[in-house]
Structures are given as structure tokens and as C-alpha cells.
Write a structure and sequence with these properties.
alpha/beta; Ferric Hydroxamate Uptake Protein, Chain A, domain 1; five-stranded mixed sheet; 4 helices; 20% helix; globular
């Protein structure tokens, strides 16, 4: 076979080799302490990396169990004695496997937080700090009435949801007159997520989608 005849075949093989799972775009990486009270790092990373690779690219880390779990970030180490460790979330959901197994997609939010695990805080299934994620995934109904309706309509647009959906949805955001004005509580609900908001917080969120950034929004 001539060299000119081989060239198209070689190009096809090269293109096939380059297409193996490459992602375009970026994901967001946050590192905080004490349930978001102190921000250690906030920046972007290339999509397509694993959560562990992204963290390692931006910060000095050490790992354990063959590189599957984080031991320290920036010299801050998990400790049985102090009952504190590093926990991570992707798009508001608690990591349920090694960060080395989680591949970041464009637009994902990876969040590591160093906190105590005492007082029932070992597992936090979902947090509000990466809003509007996790409400972007699945369908979301926003429930409100009266004076809270304008804020509810803005929140509907932020999450791509439905106001007072007639059919069951995956997620629910409830703006309640019975809640305290600054009430925020998020929890897993059936197969989705339930977020409760007081009227004042809902209005802040309607004006600024980042108003709850780095917050857990869960009962301690």
C-alpha cells in the first residue's frame, strides 16, 4: 500500500485515540473549612478530570488506601483524635465513592470541606451551598403563595423548574410563610431533594443565586 493511501487510515486511528472520553469546558472546585465558614480555595479546573485529579492539580494533598481517599489538603490532616476529616460533595450531593472514581463534567461543582464528624455529622447527604445545583438535575416544583410568589417565579427560572407543578416532581423548593424569615433547610426527599426557605431568604436568593454559597443548610 502506498504512503498516500496509508495517510487517511493513520489520521482515523489518531482521531479515534484522541476521542477517548475527553471533556471540553471547566468545572468548579471549592475547598473550605468548618461547614463553609472559611474558604481555602475557589477556582476552576478542566472537565474530564476525576475529582481527585482536580484537587491534586490545584492543592498540595496526601492520600491513603492506594490514592483512593484524601488524608490531607494543604497540610490540614484528618484525625481520629480530633474527630475531624475531609468530606466532599459534587453538585451538592455527598460523595458516595472514592473521589478517584468520580469524573467531572462541564459545569460540575466539586466542594471539599474539613469539618467535625461528631453529633451526627458523619454523613450529610446533600447541601445547599452549590445552589442551583442539585436542583438542575431532575424536575423541580417551587411551592409558594401570596407575597412569596415573585421570589418563587425568579427561583423557578434559576432551576429550570415549575411553579406549583400539578404532577409529582423529583425535587421540591417550598417557600413557607410558616417558616422563620431566615429559615434554610435542605434534605433528601424520596428520590430527590427538598429545600425549605423562609420568605426573606427566598427573596435574597431570587436576587442573587449565590446568596447561599458555601452553606450547608442542614440541621446540625
Amino acid at each position: 500500500m502506498s504512503r498516500s493511501a496509508l495517510l487517511p487510515l493513520v489520521l482515523l486511528l489518531v482521531l479515534a485515540g484522541c476521542g477517548g472520553g475527553h471533556e471540553h469546558g471547566t468545572a468548579t472546585l471549592w475547598v473550605t473549612r468548618d461547614r463553609g465558614a472559611q474558604v481555602v480555595f475557589s477556582g476552576t479546573v478542566p472537565a474530564g478530570l476525576t475529582a481527585m485529579q482536580a484537587l491534586d492539580r490545584k492543592l498540595d494533598i496526601s492520600t491513603r488506601y492506594g490514592g483512593r481517599f484524601v488524608q490531607s489538603i494543604g497540610g490540614v490532616q484528618g484525625s481520629v483524635t480530633s474527630q475531624r476529616d475531609w468530606f466532599y460533595f459534587v453538585n451538592g450531593f455527598e460523595g458516595d465513592r472514592s473521589a478517584a472514581e468520580v469524573k467531572l463534567r462541564p459545569g460540575d461543582v466539586e466542594w471539599w470541606d474539613y469539618r467535625s464528624w461528631t453529633g451526627g455529622a458523619m454523613s450529610v447527604p446533600v447541601v445547599v451551598g452549590a445552589y442551583p445545583k442539585p436542583f438542575i438535575s431532575g424536575t423541580t416544583s417551587v411551592v409558594a403563595a401570596g407575597a412569596n410568589l415573585p421570589a418563587a417565579k425568579a427561583i423557578v427560572r434559576q432551576v429550570g423548574g415549575t411553579l406549583l407543578a400539578k404532577k409529582p416532581t423529583t425535587n421540591y423548593i417550598v417557600i413557607g410563610a410558616s417558616f422563620a424569615a431566615d429559615h434554610v433547610r435542605i434534605k433528601r426527599f424520596r428520590q430527590g431533594v427538598l429545600l425549605e426557605l423562609g420568605g426573606a431568604i427566598a427573596q435574597r436568593l431570587a436576587r442573587d443565586p449565590d446568596a447561599l454559597r458555601y452553606r450547608y443548610g442542614v440541621a446540625r
